[in-house]
Amino acid sequence: MNTRKELDEYSKILIRTMGKIYPVLFYCNLSQNYYQEIEVQDSNVLSATNKGDYDSLLFAFSQSIPEGKSRDKFLSAFNRTHLLKLANTKDESPALRHPYFEPNGTQHWVETKSIFIKSRSGDILSVLLSKSLDDEIRREIESKQKQLILSFLASEYSNVFLVDFDKLTTVPLILTPQIKTLLNLPLNQEMDYKQAVSAYSATITREEDRNAFTRYCSPEVLFTQLSTKPRLERIYRNSYGKYCELKWVRVGDWADGEPKQAVAGVAEKDKEIRKELKHQKDLQLAKEKAEKANEAKSEFLSRMSHDIRTPINGVIGMTELAKKNINNPFKISECLENVTTSSYHLLSLVNDILDINHIEHKKVEIAHKPMNILSFADGCLSIISGQLINRNIKIVSEFEHFDYPFVLGDELHLRQAIVNILGNAIKFTSDEDGKIIFRIQQIGTGNKTVTYRFQIEDNGIGMSKDFLGHIWENFSQENVVPHSDHKGSGLGMSIAKSLIELMGGSIGVESELGKGSTFTIEMPFAIDDKTAAARRAQESTGQRNLAGVRILLAEDNPINLKSEQELLESEGAIVTTATNGLEAVELFNASEPNSFDAILMDIIMPVKNGLEATKEIRSLARTEASVIPIIAITANAFEEDIRNSMNAGMNAHLTKPLEMNQVIKTLLSCMRMRSVKQAEKLKAALSQANRDELTRVGNRTAFIERQRKIENEISSGNLQGFAVCMCDVNNLKITNDTLGHKAGDELLINASRIICTTYQHSPVFRIGGDEFAIFLYGQDFDNREELYKKFISQLSENISIAMGMAVFNSAIDKNISDVTKRADAEMYITKKLMKQKAKKN
Description:
Radius of gyration: 46 Å
Helix content: 40-55%
Distance between the termini: 141 Å
Largest sheet: 7 strands, mixed
Number of strands: 28
Shape: elongated
């Protein structure tokens, strides 16, 4: 009896012990399909009746397991038939980990196991046990997560620490030998977190960043931030000034009861961070630039609304006044003069707006067509002569003898730039002793190229030093125009500079308040030697009017038609008019052969536009249809408009309002069938020529190409140190004038030899008549002071060269042009000092 009681007691103890491990226990008779509850301490694992048939228990249990592989696997492992087979053959105890859902949808992980028991009766008995694995699974997940974090950080960060915010301790997991030595930190040993931060900050971080680094790494700051963000990043500089990145990654979710741990990784990323900081700085500068541009444009539009209305109101007012004085010819003439003045001013404002829009959107295309420098200069003066009416200003033209007056260039855009500057000179020059000098000089030649210097000098009101730094900016204006009720658009100088640089030239200005201004443009051209003789023959014919020239004029605007017809007829032309493109085609096709010498064709017309009409005329089966000059007359003056005209079969493109001298020249020129094929060939030759023909060093084209290459190297960070040297050969003009051009050429050749032999490892370019430029790289850059002394020692009385040098400084130089300008300024200072010294001697 006592033994029975002891066994019962032992059974209870065993059940309680097992219940500590497996809170759910069932006694099962598999042979009889019966179960009896032994212990159920965890309702999260199973809720069932205390006894019944085993199959029902298994089914009830499986309903809380997700459908699919997990449930199928569970039923397969614990179904009664399978267990009976195992017990009879292998005596194995199956065990399975599987998910389990509470009725409220909460998921748990559970381990279920079946243990077989020997029976005297021969029945197969087992105990079914089940326990929750939530804590174990969570620890496994956290362990894997921690390992993943460590692996991730170790792949990119050379120093890794595990930090426990509950205990305020840290364990160094990975350290570089340098950090390990400097801080004397043992790997994988726990230490006080605050002491570790203090030691790291004092030893490793840069002094300027130390306080901010210590504050950021305080437990309070990090704990607060990591509670809401799983990752944090911080940039600081180490004691060597290199940028480093500190990354924090939270371990787990930091739920209630979980350890509050994080892993910190440290790596030097100086190059990447500097690149990103530069990118951010560039973005900020671009943003500020865009904001300033928008502000300037808003201010400009606000001002222009008044400026545009002023001439429009003037036109309206003068028109009304003329109507009231219809019988007073003197008053009508006065009104018409005022209308003309206001109209031209309004046209100037509109053209400036359209031009700057085209330039900013890179829609301007530069042409290389035949032009005569002297004719070009006369045309510029002719255009601005209208602004001199009722003004007491003297314009002096100083044009030297040119060896190569016939060149290939973009006459339209160059004239636009020059006229802008001449117009400004007129505006800002007083009638009292007002004087403007328009000077053109030939300053050098190269491989089938010639360089001209254009100068516009006035004795007007001048500009302040502060404004000179902004003169090329859009919408910049300093002073109110003293002799006009209208201010300009503030775009003239910006347009002029953009056009000149697009054509490969350069522009500069010198000015002083109260003493006037001097604008200097230097422009290279291809020499048009193949068509020079033909041009001279053409200009020697003496015909300067349109006497007897038969013209078909197509124009839909009745006012324009009347004025254009009268202007042409006043020059002796015989004019037949058409009011649309279709009528022009019909008139031409119905006329006798050779009835017309030329056709002036408006572009925008009803029924059939000028381009369509031109194409149809060119396709007619008449001998003269393919050769008769057809000239566009239109308000559309952009390069693509000209190209469209040429593509349609027109010979030339004139813009309204028509300037009669230009109309006459164009008509006579087109009627003589001038060819521009040579111009295209020379253009191709020019684009391939990168070496100066005289000195055999690089020419301006090569210089510009090298500038672009250097800009790319600066942007990519591949160019470490370089300098720009600018050289000017003194007394070249005196040598040319006194000893002849051959002696001048010899002087330039000897000067280039001295420069090249001094700077053997750097490219040399001849960028003007007497100017050279050098980019110093590598050992030439490193030895620039010694090389400069060597350069000076080679000069003599016969060869005198002024030099200026500037070293690239990323803090002040935005681009290569800034370095070149500083070197150029240094060169001119040296040149000035050399001249002063020569005078004293």
